Amino acid sequence: MKPLVTVVIPTYNRPSPLRHALASVAAQYAVPGSVEVVVVNDGGCDVSTVANAAREQGLVVRLIDLNQNGGLPSARNVGIQVARGDYLAFLDDDDIFLPSHLGTALAALSTGDADLAYTVCVVQEARVDPANPPAFSTTATFPFDPDLLSVANFMPVHTAVLRRPPEAARFDPYLPALEDWDMWLRLARDHRYRFVHIPEPTVVYHRIASEASMVGATVGDGHALAHFGTLTEQMWCRWPARTPKTQHFRLYIAVMYWHSLARLAGGHALSDQYFQRCVAEITAVWHGERSETGLRQRIIDSIKETADVAHAD
User: Which helix H or strand E contains 123, and what residues bound it?
Assistant: First the structure.
């Protein structure tokens, strides 16, 4: 039977977290069709026993073993090519879906008014058990605006469920990071995909201090943060601002990077969720929910390790 949705999971030398990721897909409910998982082993250790265990639990799993590591974008593209579902979802091997993720997103897409639905991502510093996840509240939402998407990426890759993209829309294998942001912009600008935001937390991103992470490294490593700043500038060049408002708000992202680098240079750590906090502040002003007055200071406060400062406009 042809699946309704394919979940693409790239993996590299993380069999234990992969087991939890697969369990979170198996726990999905209210999905109006069948689900398949394509696990793309990106040149890592053998994960066939993990895949077989998931199959024994009733999950349809197809395992693709690559001979060498090509990186996340290439692995996801392999998964897209072999996927059989009408819709695609993406999950990294160390993160999880909450049980309502696929059902919630597919329900929004079933109206025919959107081609891509994205939800809210919860960042956790300890692993969440997919068999018994806690209830999470929504702290910040990011309504879609194509010009705001040109400012910063507010859509983590595993929040999205989308109609199968055309052959010309794939993750850029030459980008070492931010490939999901590039993909969303390509779908929005070149392929006229319609996006809809569902303000519900349905996915968990694990940021574990003891485990290596390219994004997590930016919290304490100035070189890693500068690398992301350079990539952001490259993305802005690739996808030029179409409105003066976009160009203006990009300056606030630059402010975030400048002050974050200065803080690290001074020997101070950043908030584990500095990026999410800063983008939430910028988004609220963009949509008119908060005044632009004081935004620069709110960004500075948001990058601090213990920042949880409320400002009155």
Answer: strand 116-124
